[in-house]
Amino acid sequence: EKGTYPHFMLKEIDEQPFVIRNIISKYKDENEDIKLDEDIRQTMLDADRIYIIAAGTSYHAGLVGKQLIERIANKPVETHIASEFLYNMPLLSEKPLFIFISQSGETADSRGVLVAVKELGHKALTITNVPGSTLSREADYTLHTYAGPEIAVASTKAYTAQMAVLAILAVDTAKAAGLKMDFNPLQELAIVANAMETLTDKKDKMEKIARDYLSVSRNCFFIGRAIDYYVCLEGALKLKEISYIQAEGFAGGELKHGTIALIEEGTPVIGVVTQHHVNLSIRGNMKEVVARGASPCMISMEGLAEGDDALVIPHVHEYLTPLVSVVPLQLISYYAALHRNCDVDKPRNLAKSVTVE
Ligand code: M6R
Protein backbone atom coordinates (compact mmCIF):
# COMPACT_ATOMS: atom_id res chain seq x y z
CA GLU A 1 0.00 0.00 0.00
CA LYS A 2 3.01 2.30 -0.19
CA GLY A 3 2.24 2.83 -3.86
CA THR A 4 5.12 4.65 -5.49
CA TYR A 5 6.55 5.81 -2.18
CA PRO A 6 9.77 4.29 -0.88
CA HIS A 7 8.53 4.53 2.71
CA PHE A 8 5.26 4.81 4.58
CA MET A 9 6.62 7.77 6.50
CA LEU A 10 7.07 9.86 3.35
CA LYS A 11 3.62 8.86 2.11
CA GLU A 12 2.06 9.78 5.44
CA ILE A 13 3.82 13.15 5.52
CA ASP A 14 2.47 13.86 2.05
CA GLU A 15 -1.05 12.82 3.05
CA GLN A 16 -1.34 15.57 5.65
CA PRO A 17 -3.09 18.17 3.46
CA PHE A 18 -5.71 15.55 2.51
CA VAL A 19 -6.15 14.51 6.12
CA ILE A 20 -6.76 18.11 7.18
CA ARG A 21 -9.32 18.57 4.37
CA ASN A 22 -10.96 15.33 5.43
CA ILE A 23 -11.21 16.55 9.02
CA ILE A 24 -12.77 19.80 7.83
CA SER A 25 -15.46 17.90 5.93
CA LYS A 26 -16.14 15.47 8.79
CA TYR A 27 -16.53 18.25 11.36
CA LYS A 28 -18.59 20.63 9.20
CA ASP A 29 -22.40 20.75 9.20
CA GLU A 30 -24.67 21.92 6.36
CA ASN A 31 -24.47 25.53 7.62
CA GLU A 32 -20.67 25.46 7.48
CA ASP A 33 -20.61 25.37 11.28
CA ILE A 34 -18.79 22.92 13.50
CA LYS A 35 -20.51 19.54 13.77
CA LEU A 36 -19.86 17.89 17.11
CA ASP A 37 -21.64 15.44 19.37
CA GLU A 38 -23.97 17.35 21.73
CA ASP A 39 -22.89 15.26 24.74
CA ILE A 40 -19.23 16.07 24.14
CA ARG A 41 -20.09 19.76 23.84
CA GLN A 42 -21.98 19.67 27.13
CA THR A 43 -19.24 17.69 28.88
CA MET A 44 -16.62 20.23 27.78
CA LEU A 45 -18.84 23.04 29.07
CA ASP A 46 -19.45 21.32 32.41
CA ALA A 47 -15.78 20.62 33.12
CA ASP A 48 -14.03 23.12 35.36
CA ARG A 49 -10.57 21.83 34.34
CA ILE A 50 -9.28 19.57 31.61
CA TYR A 51 -6.50 17.03 32.06
CA ILE A 52 -4.91 15.90 28.81
CA ILE A 53 -3.10 12.57 29.07
CA ALA A 54 -0.87 11.15 26.33
CA ALA A 55 2.54 9.77 25.39
CA GLY A 56 5.24 10.64 22.87
CA THR A 57 4.07 12.58 19.86
CA SER A 58 0.49 12.57 21.12
CA TYR A 59 1.76 14.27 24.29
CA HIS A 60 3.31 16.96 22.12
CA ALA A 61 -0.06 17.46 20.43
CA GLY A 62 -1.54 17.70 23.93
CA LEU A 63 0.83 20.55 24.83
CA VAL A 64 -0.46 22.48 21.84
CA GLY A 65 -4.01 21.44 22.80
CA LYS A 66 -3.58 23.04 26.21
CA GLN A 67 -2.71 26.36 24.60
CA LEU A 68 -5.60 26.11 22.16
CA ILE A 69 -8.24 25.27 24.76
CA GLU A 70 -6.98 27.82 27.28
CA ARG A 71 -6.61 30.66 24.79
CA ILE A 72 -9.71 29.97 22.72
CA ALA A 73 -12.16 28.50 25.22
CA ASN A 74 -10.77 30.16 28.34
CA LYS A 75 -10.78 26.91 30.29
CA PRO A 76 -7.84 25.69 32.41
CA VAL A 77 -5.96 22.71 31.01
CA GLU A 78 -3.06 20.59 32.24
CA THR A 79 -1.20 18.26 29.91
CA HIS A 80 0.46 15.22 31.47
CA ILE A 81 2.76 12.44 30.33
CA ALA A 82 0.67 9.29 30.74
CA SER A 83 3.40 7.16 32.33
CA GLU A 84 4.03 9.79 35.04
CA PHE A 85 0.49 10.83 35.86
CA LEU A 86 -0.30 8.25 38.51
CA TYR A 87 3.00 8.84 40.33
CA ASN A 88 2.75 12.62 40.23
CA MET A 89 -0.98 12.98 40.34
CA PRO A 90 -2.02 16.62 40.63
CA LEU A 91 -4.81 17.72 42.96
CA LEU A 92 -7.89 17.28 40.81
CA SER A 93 -10.52 19.97 40.38
CA GLU A 94 -14.15 19.42 41.34
CA LYS A 95 -15.39 18.59 37.84
CA PRO A 96 -12.44 17.34 35.85
CA LEU A 97 -12.63 16.06 32.30
CA PHE A 98 -9.88 13.73 31.08
CA ILE A 99 -8.91 13.88 27.42
CA PHE A 100 -6.79 10.99 26.18
CA ILE A 101 -4.92 11.60 22.94
CA SER A 102 -3.69 8.47 21.21
CA GLN A 103 -3.13 7.59 17.58
CA SER A 104 -3.49 3.87 18.20
CA GLY A 105 -5.87 4.01 21.15
CA GLU A 106 -3.87 1.12 22.62
CA THR A 107 -1.08 2.80 24.60
CA ALA A 108 -0.85 0.99 27.92
CA ASP A 109 0.45 4.00 29.87
CA SER A 110 -2.59 6.02 28.85
CA ARG A 111 -4.93 3.11 29.52
CA GLY A 112 -3.53 2.83 33.06
CA VAL A 113 -4.61 6.41 33.72
CA LEU A 114 -7.99 5.89 32.07
CA VAL A 115 -8.78 2.90 34.28
CA ALA A 116 -7.73 4.84 37.39
CA VAL A 117 -9.76 7.95 36.66
CA LYS A 118 -12.83 5.94 35.66
CA GLU A 119 -12.60 4.23 39.05
CA LEU A 120 -12.65 7.68 40.63
CA GLY A 121 -15.85 8.34 38.67
CA HIS A 122 -14.50 10.95 36.26
CA LYS A 123 -15.51 11.52 32.64
CA ALA A 124 -13.16 10.67 29.78
CA LEU A 125 -12.95 11.63 26.12
CA THR A 126 -10.53 9.88 23.76
CA ILE A 127 -9.16 11.59 20.66
CA THR A 128 -7.91 8.75 18.49
CA ASN A 129 -7.25 7.58 14.99
CA VAL A 130 -8.77 4.19 15.78
CA PRO A 131 -12.36 4.32 17.01
CA GLY A 132 -13.14 0.95 18.55
CA SER A 133 -9.66 0.80 20.09
CA THR A 134 -9.31 0.11 23.80
CA LEU A 135 -9.04 3.77 24.82
CA SER A 136 -12.00 4.62 22.63
CA ARG A 137 -14.21 1.83 24.00
CA GLU A 138 -13.37 2.48 27.62
CA ALA A 139 -13.84 6.26 27.54
CA ASP A 140 -17.26 7.93 27.66
CA TYR A 141 -16.75 9.69 24.34
CA THR A 142 -14.55 9.51 21.26
CA LEU A 143 -13.44 12.07 18.71
CA HIS A 144 -12.04 10.55 15.53
CA THR A 145 -8.94 12.10 13.90
CA TYR A 146 -9.72 10.62 10.46
CA ALA A 147 -6.06 10.40 9.44
CA GLY A 148 -6.35 6.94 7.88
CA PRO A 149 -4.03 4.11 8.92
CA GLU A 150 -0.63 5.29 10.08
CA ILE A 151 1.92 2.54 9.47
CA ALA A 152 5.33 4.18 9.97
CA VAL A 153 6.48 4.00 13.58
CA ALA A 154 7.25 7.72 13.48
CA SER A 155 3.95 9.50 13.87
CA THR A 156 3.33 12.36 11.43
CA LYS A 157 -0.17 12.73 10.04
CA ALA A 158 -1.75 11.56 13.30
CA TYR A 159 -0.05 14.44 15.13
CA THR A 160 -1.29 17.18 12.81
CA ALA A 161 -4.75 15.57 12.76
CA GLN A 162 -4.88 15.54 16.57
CA MET A 163 -4.08 19.25 16.71
CA ALA A 164 -6.69 20.04 14.06
CA VAL A 165 -9.36 18.22 16.06
CA LEU A 166 -8.24 19.96 19.26
CA ALA A 167 -8.59 23.36 17.56
CA ILE A 168 -12.10 22.48 16.41
CA LEU A 169 -13.00 21.23 19.88
CA ALA A 170 -11.65 24.41 21.50
CA VAL A 171 -13.70 26.67 19.24
CA ASP A 172 -16.83 24.58 19.65
CA THR A 173 -16.49 24.88 23.43
CA ALA A 174 -15.90 28.62 23.22
CA LYS A 175 -18.97 29.11 21.06
CA ALA A 176 -21.12 26.92 23.29
CA ALA A 177 -19.97 29.05 26.23
CA GLY A 178 -21.10 32.16 24.35
CA LEU A 179 -17.60 33.58 23.89
CA LYS A 180 -17.07 35.98 21.03
CA MET A 181 -15.16 34.14 18.32
CA ASP A 182 -13.48 35.58 15.27
CA PHE A 183 -11.36 32.50 14.58
CA ASN A 184 -13.04 30.06 12.21
CA PRO A 185 -11.04 26.81 12.47
CA LEU A 186 -12.67 25.20 9.43
CA GLN A 187 -11.66 28.10 7.18
CA GLU A 188 -8.24 28.48 8.75
CA LEU A 189 -7.52 24.75 8.49
CA ALA A 190 -8.16 24.94 4.74
CA ILE A 191 -5.35 27.52 4.57
CA VAL A 192 -3.19 25.16 6.65
CA ALA A 193 -3.77 22.32 4.16
CA ASN A 194 -2.57 24.52 1.30
CA ALA A 195 0.47 25.64 3.30
CA MET A 196 1.35 22.00 4.03
CA GLU A 197 1.20 21.27 0.32
CA THR A 198 3.57 24.13 -0.46
CA LEU A 199 6.06 22.54 1.93
CA THR A 200 5.67 18.95 0.80
CA ASP A 201 6.38 20.27 -2.72
CA LYS A 202 9.76 21.55 -1.49
CA LYS A 203 11.31 18.22 -0.59
CA ASP A 204 14.59 19.08 -2.35
CA LYS A 205 15.07 21.92 0.05
CA MET A 206 14.48 19.75 3.14
CA GLU A 207 16.76 17.06 1.74
CA LYS A 208 19.49 19.67 1.31
CA ILE A 209 19.04 20.92 4.88
CA ALA A 210 19.32 17.32 6.14
CA ARG A 211 22.45 16.76 4.05
CA ASP A 212 24.10 20.06 5.02
CA TYR A 213 23.38 19.93 8.72
CA LEU A 214 22.80 16.34 9.74
CA SER A 215 24.78 13.89 7.59
CA VAL A 216 27.63 13.53 10.06
CA SER A 217 26.65 15.34 13.23
CA ARG A 218 26.27 13.42 16.49
CA ASN A 219 23.69 15.75 17.92
CA CYS A 220 21.22 18.48 17.07
CA PHE A 221 19.24 21.03 19.05
CA PHE A 222 15.86 22.51 18.25
CA ILE A 223 15.00 25.80 19.87
CA GLY A 224 11.79 27.77 19.97
CA ARG A 225 9.65 29.80 22.32
CA ALA A 226 5.95 29.75 23.14
CA ILE A 227 4.02 27.35 20.92
CA ASP A 228 7.12 26.92 18.72
CA TYR A 229 8.87 25.28 21.65
CA TYR A 230 6.33 22.44 21.60
CA VAL A 231 7.00 21.88 17.91
CA CYS A 232 10.72 21.76 18.72
CA LEU A 233 10.05 18.92 21.17
CA GLU A 234 8.29 17.05 18.39
CA GLY A 235 11.02 17.83 15.83
CA ALA A 236 13.64 16.43 18.20
CA LEU A 237 11.64 13.28 18.92
CA LYS A 238 11.18 12.64 15.18
CA LEU A 239 14.87 13.09 14.49
CA LYS A 240 16.11 10.88 17.32
CA GLU A 241 13.71 8.02 16.77
CA ILE A 242 14.45 7.52 13.09
CA SER A 243 17.99 8.84 12.56
CA TYR A 244 19.44 7.99 16.02
CA ILE A 245 20.98 11.45 16.21
CA GLN A 246 20.89 12.69 19.78
CA ALA A 247 18.40 15.54 19.51
CA GLU A 248 16.74 17.76 22.08
CA GLY A 249 14.10 20.45 21.89
CA PHE A 250 14.60 23.45 24.16
CA ALA A 251 12.83 26.60 25.13
CA GLY A 252 15.13 29.32 23.79
CA GLY A 253 15.41 31.00 27.18
CA GLU A 254 16.54 27.78 28.89
CA LEU A 255 19.71 27.43 26.81
CA LYS A 256 21.74 29.74 28.99
CA HIS A 257 20.76 27.71 32.07
CA GLY A 258 22.83 24.73 31.03
CA THR A 259 22.40 23.36 27.55
CA ILE A 260 24.52 26.01 25.86
CA ALA A 261 27.53 24.22 27.38
CA LEU A 262 26.99 21.47 24.80
CA ILE A 263 27.33 23.76 21.79
CA GLU A 264 30.61 23.31 19.96
CA GLU A 265 31.97 24.11 16.51
CA GLY A 266 29.44 22.90 13.93
CA THR A 267 26.66 21.75 16.29
CA PRO A 268 23.45 22.07 14.29
CA VAL A 269 20.82 24.24 15.95
CA ILE A 270 17.45 24.39 14.26
CA GLY A 271 15.40 27.41 15.31
CA VAL A 272 11.66 27.64 14.74
CA VAL A 273 9.76 30.92 14.83
CA THR A 274 6.14 31.47 13.84
CA GLN A 275 5.02 33.88 16.56
CA HIS A 276 5.62 37.59 16.28
CA HIS A 277 6.04 38.18 20.02
CA VAL A 278 9.03 35.80 20.30
CA ASN A 279 10.80 36.61 17.03
CA LEU A 280 13.40 38.94 18.50
CA SER A 281 14.11 36.81 21.54
CA ILE A 282 14.57 33.53 19.67
CA ARG A 283 16.82 35.26 17.15
CA GLY A 284 18.82 36.53 20.12
CA ASN A 285 19.21 32.93 21.31
CA MET A 286 20.35 31.93 17.83
CA LYS A 287 23.05 34.61 17.94
CA GLU A 288 24.22 33.26 21.31
CA VAL A 289 24.73 29.76 19.93
CA VAL A 290 26.30 31.01 16.71
CA ALA A 291 28.83 32.96 18.80
CA ARG A 292 29.82 29.58 20.28
CA GLY A 293 30.27 27.93 16.91
CA ALA A 294 26.83 26.43 16.19
CA SER A 295 25.56 25.96 12.62
CA PRO A 296 22.23 27.80 12.62
CA CYS A 297 19.24 26.67 10.58
CA MET A 298 16.36 29.08 11.06
CA ILE A 299 12.84 28.12 9.99
CA SER A 300 10.54 31.12 10.12
CA MET A 301 7.04 32.03 9.04
CA GLU A 302 6.30 34.55 6.29
CA GLY A 303 6.20 38.02 7.76
CA LEU A 304 8.87 37.20 10.33
CA ALA A 305 11.60 36.03 7.96
CA GLU A 306 15.08 37.49 7.73
CA GLY A 307 17.60 37.28 4.90
CA ASP A 308 19.62 34.24 5.91
CA ASP A 309 16.78 32.03 7.19
CA ALA A 310 17.12 28.49 5.83
CA LEU A 311 13.41 28.05 5.15
CA VAL A 312 10.34 30.28 5.18
CA ILE A 313 6.98 28.61 5.73
CA PRO A 314 3.70 30.08 4.45
CA HIS A 315 1.64 32.25 6.76
CA VAL A 316 -1.22 30.61 8.68
CA HIS A 317 -3.28 31.66 11.70
CA GLU A 318 -1.15 31.98 14.84
CA TYR A 319 -3.13 29.23 16.62
CA LEU A 320 -2.42 26.71 13.88
CA THR A 321 1.26 27.26 13.12
CA PRO A 322 2.40 23.94 14.68
CA LEU A 323 0.51 22.02 12.00
CA VAL A 324 2.65 23.69 9.37
CA SER A 325 6.01 24.26 11.06
CA VAL A 326 6.25 20.57 11.93
CA VAL A 327 6.16 19.52 8.26
CA PRO A 328 9.73 20.63 7.44
CA LEU A 329 10.93 19.03 10.67
CA GLN A 330 9.29 15.73 9.69
CA LEU A 331 10.88 15.88 6.24
CA ILE A 332 14.30 16.88 7.56
CA SER A 333 14.20 13.89 9.95
CA TYR A 334 13.14 11.61 7.12
CA TYR A 335 16.03 12.65 4.88
CA ALA A 336 18.52 12.61 7.76
CA ALA A 337 17.52 8.99 8.42
CA LEU A 338 17.81 8.14 4.72
CA HIS A 339 21.27 9.68 4.44
CA ARG A 340 22.35 7.62 7.41
CA ASN A 341 20.90 4.42 5.97
CA CYS A 342 18.47 3.94 8.83
CA ASP A 343 15.34 1.82 8.63
CA VAL A 344 12.94 4.77 8.37
CA ASP A 345 9.63 2.98 8.87
CA LYS A 346 10.81 0.54 11.50
CA PRO A 347 13.44 2.15 13.72
CA ARG A 348 15.33 -0.11 16.09
CA ASN A 349 13.91 -0.86 19.56
CA LEU A 350 10.52 0.76 18.83
CA ALA A 351 7.01 -0.54 18.28
CA LYS A 352 4.14 1.26 16.60
CA SER A 353 1.89 0.91 19.58
CA VAL A 354 3.31 0.46 23.02
CA THR A 355 1.06 -1.95 24.84
CA VAL A 356 3.24 -2.48 27.92
CA GLU A 357 3.60 -0.03 30.80
O1 M6R B 1 -0.65 5.53 19.71
P1 M6R B 1 -0.24 6.67 20.59
O2 M6R B 1 -0.51 8.00 20.02
O3 M6R B 1 -0.82 6.57 21.99
O4 M6R B 1 1.32 6.51 20.75
C1 M6R B 1 2.05 7.30 21.61
C2 M6R B 1 3.53 7.19 21.34
O5 M6R B 1 3.98 5.87 21.55
C3 M6R B 1 3.88 7.62 19.91
O6 M6R B 1 3.43 8.91 19.63
C4 M6R B 1 5.40 7.57 19.69
O7 M6R B 1 6.04 8.56 20.47
C5 M6R B 1 5.73 7.72 18.21
N1 M6R B 1 6.63 6.68 17.78
C6 M6R B 1 6.37 9.04 17.88
O8 M6R B 1 6.66 9.16 16.53
UniProtKB/TrEMBL annotation:
It catalyses: D-fructose 6-phosphate + L-glutamine = D-glucosamine 6-phosphate + L-glutamate. The chain holds residues 244 to 600 of 600 of the full protein. The active site is at residue 352. It comes from Evansella vedderi. The gene is glmS. It is found in: Cytoplasm. Its EC number is 2.6.1.16. This is Glutamine--fructose-6-phosphate aminotransferase [isomerizing]. GO terms for molecular function: glutamine-fructose-6-phosphate transaminase (isomerizing) activity. The lineage of its organism: Bacteria, Bacillati, Bacillota, Bacilli, Bacillales. Residues 40-179, 209-347 form the SIS domain. It comes from the Bacteria. Keywords: Aminotransferase, Cytoplasm, Glutamine amidotransferase, Repeat, Transferase. Catalyzes the first step in hexosamine metabolism, converting fructose-6P into glucosamine-6P using glutamine as a nitrogen source. Homodimer.
